[in-house]
């Protein structure tokens, strides 16, 4: 087959939505796939703009929850959607409430019917050699399964986050449905990619995965990192990037920081904690209750390019995992950008030996996410490193997008 004839049909609901990790995951890979001779055929939701220079088709969801979700994105860039959205939301409200009573799933669940129909049409038109579903929404995997089963084209599924885990807030019925989707993937896909070894191991123990499971660490793209030099300031700046909410919050970190200030009050004037991203109400209350004013600075959500600049200029990058069962199977995608920034990381890790070992191997400091004394020790170590101006000596990260794409193509071949 000629190189330019190699097509992959890629299903990703969230592709091209700025600021979403699951969108960046696939979007950053596309140039490297094309460089390797793969022509992606993108099938996505209507939430974002089209990929330039690619075959790209978009299709909507059919249930009220999906329509309402997609309208929230469309109204940001379409005047017509902005005018029609309130009316559609009012008219769909009764059906939305009925849906939520009957179907307790994510808002994107109903994307699969039209995606499967559109995907089959794309297969007839372009005859792709592979179907590849990724990008967060479970509906992409359901659609990919239908397309693969009806066309006979091999299918690789990539699970970014576990769909089923112990302390999920979803109902038992929803958990059973998600469990059924995972079983479907493990039974019918030619290969299933996981982002951690623990996720692969747990799936193999509960499904018919067999030897089809593979682990590919996604990494980040060095090309996105701005060429901004680090300059040590008068204060040690701890910076957190991303959303804070639920069990991923600042509470234990602030408890550890407060212990440090009580032991060494002079340090309260030498430390800043900068937040870039969204924060829920409980986190905002924790910030307000922190007894040392002026230490925490909340910059809110900023564009990805600006966040990468701020990342490279920070003294210490703060990583916080959820303190629930899903954290054992996940490595936050932000970690890989942190690694590329060459800044030291204080990682609040919860029951995840893979992430802890990664941090240690690259010269960073892991702490126990729900232990304020462990976090206090980590903060103290970082302050000591900063005071001796040794915080820039971080090894180069081996986790990058290009190596992930090479492994993905090797698996496909």
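Sequence proposed for the structure above (413 residues):
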């Amino acid at each position: 087959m000629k190189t330019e004839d190699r097509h992959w049909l890629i299903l990703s609901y969230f592709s091209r939505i700025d600021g979403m990790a699951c969108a960046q995951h696939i979007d950053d890979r596309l140039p490297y796939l094309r460089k390797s001779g793969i022509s992606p055929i993108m099938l996505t939701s209507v939430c974002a703009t089209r990929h330039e220079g690619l075959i790209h088709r978009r299709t909507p969801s059919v249930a009220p929850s999906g329509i309402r979700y997609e309208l929230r994105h469309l109204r940001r860039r379409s005047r017509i959607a902005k005018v029609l959205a309130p009316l559609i939301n009012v008219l769909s409200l009764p059906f939305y409430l009925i849906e939520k009573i009957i179907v307790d799933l994510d808002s994107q669940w109903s994307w699969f019917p039209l995606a499967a129909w559109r995907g089959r049409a794309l297969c007839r038109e372009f005859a792709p050699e592979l179907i590849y579903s990724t990008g967060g929404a479970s509906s992409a995997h359901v659609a990919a399964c239908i397309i693969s089963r009806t066309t006979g084209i091999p299918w690789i599924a990539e699970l970014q986050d576990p769909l089923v885990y112990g302390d999920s807030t979803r109902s038992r019925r929803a958990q059973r449905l998600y469990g059924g989707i995972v079983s479907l993937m493990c039974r019918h896909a030619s290969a299933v990619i996981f982002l951690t070894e623990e996720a692969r191991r747990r799936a193999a123990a509960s499904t018919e995965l067999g030897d089809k499971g593979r682990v590919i660490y996604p990494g980040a793209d060095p090309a996105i990192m701005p060429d901004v030099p680090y300059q040590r300031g008068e204060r040690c700046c701890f910076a957190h990037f991303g959303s804070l909410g639920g069990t991923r919050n600042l509470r234990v970190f602030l408890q550890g920081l407060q212990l440090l200030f009580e032991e060494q009050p002079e340090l309260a004037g030498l430390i800043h904690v900068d937040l870039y991203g969204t924060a829920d109400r409980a986190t905002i209350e924790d910030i307000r209750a922190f007894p040392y004013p002026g230490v925490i600075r909340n910059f809110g959500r900023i564009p990805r390019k600006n966040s990468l600049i701020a990342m490279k200029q920070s003294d210490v990058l703060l990583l916080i995992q959820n303190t629930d069962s899903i954290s054992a199977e996940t490595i936050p995608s932000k970690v890989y950008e942190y690694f590329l920034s060459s800044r030291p990381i204080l990682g609040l890790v919860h029951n995840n030996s893979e992430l802890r070992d990664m941090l240690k191997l690259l010269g960073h400091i892991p702490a126990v996410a729900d232990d304020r004394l462990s976090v206090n020790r980590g903060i103290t170590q970082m302050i000591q490193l900063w005071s001796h101006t040794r915080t820039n000596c971080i090894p180069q990260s081996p986790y990058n997008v290009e190596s992930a794409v090479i492994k993905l193509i090797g698996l496909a071949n």
